Amino acid sequence: MKQLLISALILISVNWAHADSDIFVCVDANGVKTFGNVGEGKGCKKVDLPGLNTFPAPTAKKVGKAPGDFPKIDDSTQKKRDAERRQILSDELKAEQKKLADLNAQYNNGEPERQGGERNYAKYQERTENLKEDVNRAQQNVDALQREINGLN
Q: Which residues form the DUF4124 domain (predicted)?
């Protein structure tokens, strides 16, 4: 049964790969079926398979001008929006810079003050590593906000 299923799958894949090729099924003296593209010998019959259905690729839509009723923003409204965006980004930058300064103070160049619950050196090292990651993340945020603000010019 497995062999028949595998043979059928091969038959289907061969038919897809070579739509114009002939496929033959041959049965030997032991009753084993084999499929191939040549039908030589006794017990071989040409298999009649239906043709492949093909469809043309969809055409790409052309991008043209915006319709006349497409909303447009006048210059003064756009400038107002840009100024609001710049202010929001500046406020975020100030907050992130304050956070970075606080984290740098806690981190103390890789030697933060020990806390009461850190009698175990491993806990101290873990907190130090977490502070280092927080400082790096805050610095990346500051850099990203500065790039964003510089991109508005």
A: 17-61
Tell me, what DSSP letter sits at residue 41? Answer: S
DSSP 72-120: ---HHHHHHHHHHHHHHHHHHHHHHHHHHHHHHHHHGGG-PPPPTT--S
Give tens-digit pLDDT for 10-47.
Answer: 656 554 554 457 888 888 888 888 888 887 778 888 88
Spell out a b/e string for 75-112, using b for 16 or more CB atoms within 10 Å of the CB, else e: eeeeeeeeeeeeeebeebbeebbebbeebeeebeeeeb
Number of domains composing the chain: 2
Residue type, 80: K
Residue 56 domain flag: no
Do 27 and 81 reside in the same domain of the chain? Answer: no
* Residue 125: C-alpha distances to residues 104, 116, 130, 138 (Å): 16, 14, 9, 20
